[in-house]
Amino acid sequence: MTLMSYRQALHDTLRSEMLRDENVFLIGEEIGVFEGSYKITAGLLEEFGEKRVRDTPIAEEGFTGAAIGAAMLGLRPVVEIMTINFSLLAIDQIVNHAAKIYGMFGGQAKVPMVIRTPGGGGQQLGATHSQNIELYYAFVPGLKVVAPSTPADAKALLIAAIRDDDPVIFLENLALYNTKGEVPNHDTPGVIGQAAVTREGHHLTLIGYSRMAHVAKKIADQLADHEGLDIEVIDLRSLRPLDRETIVESVKKTHAAVILEDDWLTYGIGAEVAASISDGAFDYLDAPVRRVAMAEVPMPYSKSLESAALPSENDVIQAIYQTLDAIGHRRIKTGPHD
Amino acid sequence: MTDRKRTPRKPPARTPRAKTAPVQVEPDAQGLLDFYREMLFIRRFEERAARGYTQALIGGYCHLNLGEEATVVGLMSALQPTDYLFTNYREHGYAIARGIDPRRIMAELYGRVDGVSKGWGGSMHMFDTAHRMLGGYGIVGGQIPLATGAALAIDYRSGEEVVMCTMGDGTTNIGAFHESLNIASLWRLPIVYVIINNRLGMGTSVEKSSAEPELYKRGAAYQIESARVDGLDPVAVALAGKHAVEVARGGRPYLLEVVCERLRGHSVVDPAKYRSADEVASLKEHDPVHTLAARLIAQGITDEESLLTLDHEVLANVEEISTFAEASAFPDEQTLFDYNYASEVPNDSRRLPGQPLFVTTLTSGADQ
Ligand SMILES: Cc1ncc(C[n+]2csc(CCOP(=O)(O)OP(=O)(O)O)c2C)c(N)n1
Ligand SMILES: [Mg+2]
């Protein structure tokens, strides 16, 4: 194991996969000379040259589509889209093409590619640069969507995504790049489509993915230390396929769930998770499933409004207590938020 | 309905040849001084904004017009107050030159209620209906179809206004650029597309991103008249801009390429390490503010001392502007849902992040 940042884990994995398989190449805006908007690809142009680290014009639809076409001939492109907001310019190629080619032609052509892109918000980037729209891709059959929250999962799932024969949307998050964690030294691929129970408990199930899996774990640990609460935490890790089994099994044990998401509430990822709980654990539920999500507005720039629109840790803690109250749990002692 | 005086709709005999704009009357000494004052003001304003960023008064992305001052004032001088401007995220200078109160521009950067976009837009999204500046836009190329549509609306109403749509060099590679130019030419829309060619996207050079690096030539593919002009010279830009606007007012789109410099990084947080020492050194020679100052002195229009006095005035003014912006209030949280929809609608979701969908079934415990 080595302690490293999420950014470093991504960088090292891209590098080792490029060394392993010469069909793997990187393509995207400003990933070479500029070393990536968030510096994930720093140094790779120098090491691998322009053939394998391709700076593109600002042409999301064009270069994403070109990557899809190259994948049809067996290359394994790893596309970087600077932020998920700009993937909207490529959504036709992703949804109408990458996701369709395998099925629409009766399985004759595969599209083994990865689209890496960060979501995120909370940095006053304004309405067009603060969106978390992974749902648009998680909604589409034919795509796989992963959203690792730790450096170790970032590594394992990026290996899996690159070696996978289907188009994989690999969701990163601006707020995670500098977070650190232990990462295994071996190159074992993770499993796409599996959630992880990152903390065992029996009072309630707290569910998140990407940055929110981090927040969930942190709050559960905090409430365990200060309040004696025993909360189970699930990191979804994969949004499509969704590991409903793990979610439902956990709720059968805890009888309550709170879902955290960085996207908008209505029709969000949490809605699908809540529906799965309703289907699979209805008889076990002791309280309504709660979701904590962004306020449904185009994100304002001003700090005061942005803070109001984003879920805070206190919002999560309130939702947890309200759910516990609803099932009759007594609070152990007064919380620090009072 | 009065028909606007436009050349009748017929296909041009041949592809318009790219050429430099015809020479027109140069501004007099006072005109040059006015240009200088405005350029210097933009320079000092942008430097203050950069400082505001390091003071955490400004957040998000912040792109400056440093090096683009002559281009900004030249282009804006070509427009009538009734003409429209659509631009991108690098637009503080354009907002200033359009005549918007700079205190409101700084207040927008600081995210305050007195900001041009009431604190909702920030650095990348300045908008002011009164001055017909219909937006800075943060998505590369996003403004181009919108500007084309504004020209469509003018044409639809047989209006006499013109739309100017500015964009960076890198932006000419996005599909929307090509789709829009084609539409504008087909429908003879009154629009001037301006490419601000600072030779860099973020760190990617024009040569690496554009197969035809002489960007004005791209007009030929759409039978749009085009020209390239030196963006370090406000007079040249103004003349070229006036010609372009005239053509557009006559009912033909125009493509103007303005070649200038970006003195610093792509945004305030970019140290621009990818630029060579030579390149950085040559930037000093291509500083439009210094170049014009030298010209004013050489032509005997002013002297060094007067320019220094002017600089002190401008600096003091910019400081006052910052003080005003800092004193302005942050938008109230209660206003978060004020702009959800222009037409009211039942069942709109106006819920803060922690609020449950249905409150009645729960006993609230935590906040008692
Ligand atoms: C669709 C889209 N892709 C990428 C970006 C990120 N981005 C912002 S500015 C920029 C470079 C634009 O270069 P250019 O058009 O030359 O304008 P300049 O910044 O040089 O004025 C990029 C890639 C974006 N905002 N929108
Ligand atoms: Mg540029």
Could you describe the 3D structure shown?
- The complex is a heterodimer of chains A (338) and B (368).
- Mean pLDDT of chain A is 96; it is low at 330-338.
- In chain A, strand 10 (204-208), helix 8 (211-227) and strand 11 form a beta-alpha-beta unit.
- The two termini of chain A are 40 Å apart.
- Chain A has helices spanning 6-20, 44-48, 60-72, 91-98, 101-104, 135-138, 151-163, 211-227, 244-254, 269-281, 303-309, 313-326, and strands spanning 2-5, 24-28, 53-55, 76-80, 114-119, 144-146, 168-173, 180-183, 196-199, 204-208, 231-235, 238-240, 257-264, 290-294.
- With 338 residues, chain A is of the alpha/beta class.
- Chain B has one domain (29-335): Thiamin diphosphate (ThDP)-binding fold, Pyr/PP domains (Rossmann fold, 3-Layer(aba) Sandwich).
- In chain B, helix 8 links the parallel strand 5 (225-230) and strand 6.
- Chain B is globular and about 75 Å long.
- The model of chain B is unreliable at 7-21 and 361-368 (pLDDT under 50).
- Thiamine diphosphate sits between chains B (90, 138-140, 167-171, 196, 198, 200-202, 266) and A (29, 58, 60, 82, 86, 89).
What is this structure, in a nutshell?
With 338 residues, chain A is an alpha/beta fold.
CATH structural architecture of chain B: 3-Layer(aba) Sandwich
Discrete helix count of chain B: 11
Can you identify the CATH class of the largest domain in chain A?
Alpha Beta
Uncertain spans of chain A, ≥5 residues at pLDDT below 50? 330-338
Helix and strand string of chain B, N-terminal first? Answer: HHEHHEHEHEHEHEHHH
- Taken as a percent bin, the fraction of beta residues of chain B is 5-15%
Helix content of chain A: 25-40%
